[in-house]
Structure prediction request, 440 residues.
Amino acid sequence: MGAIRSRVEGQESFVLQLHPFRETSLVAEVFSRTHGRLALVARGARRPHSALRGLLMEFRPLALSWFGAGEVKTLARAEWMGGHAPLAGRGLLFGYYLNELLLRLMPREAPHPELFDHYAHALDELARSGAAEGALRRFELRMLRSLGWGLTLDREALTEEAVRPRCEYAFVIERGVVPLAGAGAGAAAVSGEALLAMAREDFSDPRTLSEGKALMRQVLGHYLGERPLNTRRVFMELSEL
Amino acid sequence: MPSLLDELIEALRCLPGVGPRSAQRMAYYLMQRERAGASRLARALVRALEGLHHCERCNTFTEGGVCERCASGRRDATQLCVVETPADLNMMEQTHAYNGLYYAIMGRISPLEGVGPRELNLERLLARACDGVVSEVILATNFTNEGEATAHYLGELLRLRGLKVSRIARGLPVGGELEHTDIGTIAQALIERRPLEGA
Ligand SMILES: [Zn+2]
Prediction:
């Protein structure tokens, strides 16, 4: 039997990251709706008149075709899909932040169609609205859920009791919401009101936004481990200039 | 201890796009067929490393403190054009459409790679643009996502410092026909359409 050259046609995908490869090629880390995250070699994509040049860009939906059986496949074709407003300004930095989260937390070649839709939705929100931080927090919550690490924010961890808006709580990793009094020293406080709003994915209140940011940072830090996020550092440095 | 040959191959791999196989080919070629060229290359590298510095004004390479272009009194010092690389600067020069001065960032903001203001020394560009003579900064970074992000942040920072900031325009190529233009370019040209000035 000959080698199996499985070919996949026209899959809706986003480029997460591009690396130069050899003299004239690129390796694209891609998030495809049906195939999850995968690495594709784009042969000759850095040649001056390559049809792929200027087409393989982050944050725009592309229909990609590829073939190959190894870990790194070969890109056969890329087509512009459109329908997405382009990211601009600060939204670009936020977009890179989403990409870094996916690159760090989503394993290769496991399909996550619902996470793909959340990602596309988040990019759309970033492109269209000024409420960018809320879009980031919503995406983080949905991403954790899609990867099997969903947070329960409207009930207490042990008692299953409903979270009350006027009480103070803390979030304990891999356990959940506990009353602040029983959380031990050093636990960051989060209001019941913010927890309930986050459970509804409603970040319209500035207080939910700031408490939610701290909480998500704590949770994501647990899954990301020691190595800090490059995008976060660059963003911080830019806002200090 | 690695052999001299291994060391040479390893050293050649620092060149962009050169993997182990091409590095080996280059090493054999230099040692076998081009020993005179290899020796010239080695001397030129040592001398360039000692003698070339970043121009104090435009950040490109020069042998003195300030390059010829920046020192020339014939350029309009009130305009500063910011480009990513010296190659981009050369393209701008070939247009003969610009008579101001330049600043080459020597890169672009690459958030995923961790290349930010510190790595690019953007403070230096801000200081250069705020010399009191420059009144307009023209941002000519690439129209990639990273080039756009770089232009956005530079624009904000320079405007905050009271400078007029503009961005080079994008759209269809000169002589371009819609039928033969890539879809992304047409889509962007549509987004950035401008009113037609009536007579
Ligand atoms: Zn100069």
Observations:
- Chain B has nine helices and six strands.
- The mean pLDDT of chain B is 93.
